[in-house]
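User: Hey, my collaborator sent me this sequence without any context and asked if I could get a structure. I don't really work with proteins. Can you help?
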Amino acid sequence: MDSGTARYNVELRKTLQRELDALPDGGYKLLPTGEYPGPLVINRAITLEGQATTKGNRPKTSIWAIQGPVLIIQSSQVVLRNLNIEVTGLPLQLDTAPRQDAPVDTGRSSAILVWPRRNPTCQNLEIEGEVIGIPDEYGIWHYPRTLHFSNPLGWSQPERPAEVITLVVPIACQIVSTRTELQVNPNRLNPGSNQVQLSLQPPTGGGSTGGSIEGFRQSGRQADPPMGPLVGPPVGLEASLLLQTRSFTRRIDLIFNSLD
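Assistant: No problem. I've predicted the 3D structure and written it out in structure-token form, which is a compact way to encode the shape of the chain:
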């Protein structure tokens, strides 16, 4: 990030913070589609709302910071809606075995930090990072932001076993695919380490030659480059895995690479 961009982000954050501070209790702030630098502090009983896509209801308004906490909730009766809140500078250590007993970083890795007994209302929020101060969400989440595929796993190879990934979650949650072609088993995760099977079912009429996951790596705000030779996935296929709790969604984007 160059110095000009850094200065712009600092001024944008200060301006937005002043606008939030000026709202009365019961006030409302709509953030248009875009990216807004944090950290931001909410110290009034207000509603902070972003915008979402018409199809899929995915938040298009992001609040981000290189390190957390990104959003600090100091007041009761706060409502957060249609926001993507993410820590961008501290990728999960996915090249090491996940540790269920690893300590939670209560500062730098937290997307949301809630003061005791504040209990914000959270609606349609996607997050990258830990949530501190909401008991139902507290704990270690270990998952990739991006999964890289070569020829899609099991594509046109029904006999090929499904690929397996390990996800660590602190609480029970649903895991949902955004595409019917992508089969996930199980579709509910239990607290702790979970083995999840992934397989793709080709559409009627055939598909590309089979392949496998090349591996997965954590990306920041942009996807990592392809890993190794990649050939022949179905053109234009996009998919995500959604880890859904009562209050939040965590997203794993799937990238299908090919040689043009």
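In plain terms: The mean pLDDT is 78. You can pass these tokens on to your collaborator as they are.
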